[in-house]
């Protein structure tokens, strides 16, 4: 199984003013293709 990482960019995310809710969906989409999100 191939593994992927994702880099978060953006001041609101990095400062903690917002919580990212999209990585769970990205992990689901990758898993459906036999891939794994291993780090963020």
Give a verbal description of the structure.
With 40 residues, the protein is α+β, with helices and mostly antiparallel strands. It has one domain. It is 38% helix and 22% strand. The chain is built from two helices and two strands. The chain has a two-stranded parallel ribbon. The protein starts with a strand and ends with a strand.
Summarize the structure.
38% of the residues lie in helices and 22% in strands. With 40 residues, it is of the alpha+beta class.
Tags for this model:
about 40 residues; alpha+beta; 2 helices; elongated
Catalogue the unreliable spans: none
The overall pLDDT average reads 86
Please tally the β strands and state the result.
Answer: 2
The portion of residues assigned to helices is 25-40%
Terminal-residue CA separation: 17 Å
Q: Which radius of gyration do the C-alpha atoms yield?
A: 12 Å
Share of residues in strands: 15-25%
Structural class: alpha+beta
Q: What count of helical segments does DSSP give?
A: 2
Q: What does the main sheet amount to?
A: 2 strands, parallel
What is the helix/strand order?
EHHE
Label the overall shape.
elongated
Q: Tell me the domain tally.
A: 1
Strand order of the largest sheet: 1-2
Secondary-structure topology with pairs:
Layout: E1 2-5, H1 11-15, H2 23-32, E2 35-39
Parallel strand pairs: 1-2
């Amino acid at each position: 199984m191939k593994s992927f990482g994702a880099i978060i960019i953006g001041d609101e995310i990095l400062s903690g003013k917002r919580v990212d809710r999209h990585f769970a969906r990205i992990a689901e989409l990758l898993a459906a293709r036999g891939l794994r999100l291993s780090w963020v």
